[in-house]
Amino acid sequence: MVKLTNEMKEGLRVPGKGGSLIYLCTSSVDGKPNIAAMRYIDTYKDDKLLISDMFLLKTKANLKENPECIIAICHPMDSGRDWIFKGKAIDIEYGFPPDFDWHGAKAKEILDGWGDWHEKEPPDEVPPDVVYSKPAQRGVVVLHVEEIYSMETGKVGEKIQ
Is-contact 37 22, C-beta < 8 A? Predict the structure, then answer.
């Protein structure tokens, strides 16, 4: 069983700060890839990543056809904190039954805890005098991590777990 390390959990909590983002990569059933840069991410238990579903039209369609997913993170200012997380994902949307359970991730718990990321973690990199429209969150993507690889220089592609 894959287990996220404390360093990984900490590294995944800082996208948007210092120039780092995570990249959510999916593919349709016929192999058409899609990549989406994301800011709102967290860990859940020791083997899941959570990503806010705000603008994920192609990603959501791909996940319904093909749950295989990869999330990559690269910290340009912090060498050695560059990983690829591979596994299966689902978009837990509002309207799912509260008791819906996917690999130990319960819909009610996920949506109650992470269903309004914008309010929970407003972007601090946006100057206060800039007004932008509030994004509408539609759900939370849950990635059940099955494999972890390095993206660190000199170790790219090495399986960590």
Answer: yes
Helix (H, G, I), strand (E, B) or coil at 106: strand
pLDDT at 132 over 80: no
Coil, strand, or helix at residue 23? Answer: strand
What's the half-sphere exposure (Cβ side, CA atoms, 13 Å) at 88?
Answer: 7
Tokens of 93: 């949307």
Q: What is the pLDDT of residues 45-68, one digit of tens each?
A: 999 999 888 778 899 999 999 999
The tokens for 12 are: 């995944």
Domains recognised in the chain with CATH numbers? 6-122+132-150 (2.30.110.10)
Cα of 28 vs its chain's centroid, Å: 18
What predicted TM-score, i.e. pTM, was given to this entire model?
0.85
- Contact of 129 with 140, CB cutoff 8 Å: no
